[in-house]
Design a protein that fits this description.
The protein contains 6 helices and 3 strands, in the order E-H-H-E-E-H-H-H-H. By secondary structure, the chain is mainly α. Strand 2 and strand 3 form a beta hairpin. The longest helix has 25 residues. The termini are far apart.
């Protein structure tokens, strides 16, 4: 019987109510850290605590919200704008820990979805240009 030693940092389980760092959330949910930071700019309800040096600590309700956003974007096919609408119209995640999941509107025609995706990409490009201009 050969037992493998657990990888460093993986031998201990945190309590469900424990705060998690951005790297722990990224690893647990398979979402890159830069995406989590980007989502913080797009979803006002996603506000992890920030401590000295800007270190982020995600509360259990933040992790639940990140998990829900990821499901809606990656599994259900919603756009960022679509998820924003759901969050705005739905119950506050901090109150319930779970968001209602209305069925997506009858699949938008492909051109409409492409146009919406292009608008979102243009917004991202504008934000990146503004950020780059500030650092010159």
């Amino acid at each position: 019987m050969s037992e493998e030693a657990p990888e460093p940092g993986r031998g201990r389980q945190k309590a469900a109510a424990a705060f998690r760092t951005i790297s722990e959330v990224a690893e647990e949910l398979h979402i890159p850290q830069h995406v989590l930071r980007f989502w913080e700019t797009k979803f006002p309800d996603l506000k992890p605590l920030k401590r000295g040096g800007g270190r982020r600590y995600y509360r259990p309700e933040d992790v639940a919200l990140v998990r829900r956003i990821g499901e809606l974007l990656y599994q259900k096919g919603y756009t960022i704008k679509g998820v924003q609408r759901l969050l705005k119209e739905g119950e506050q995640p901090a109150q319930t820990g779970e968001l209602p999941l209305p069925r997506p509107a009858a699949a938008a025609p492909p051109r409409a979805r492409v146009r919406e995706a292009l608008r979102e990409l243009e917004e991202i490009a504008d934000a990146l240009r503004a950020l780059a201009a500030r650092h010159r």
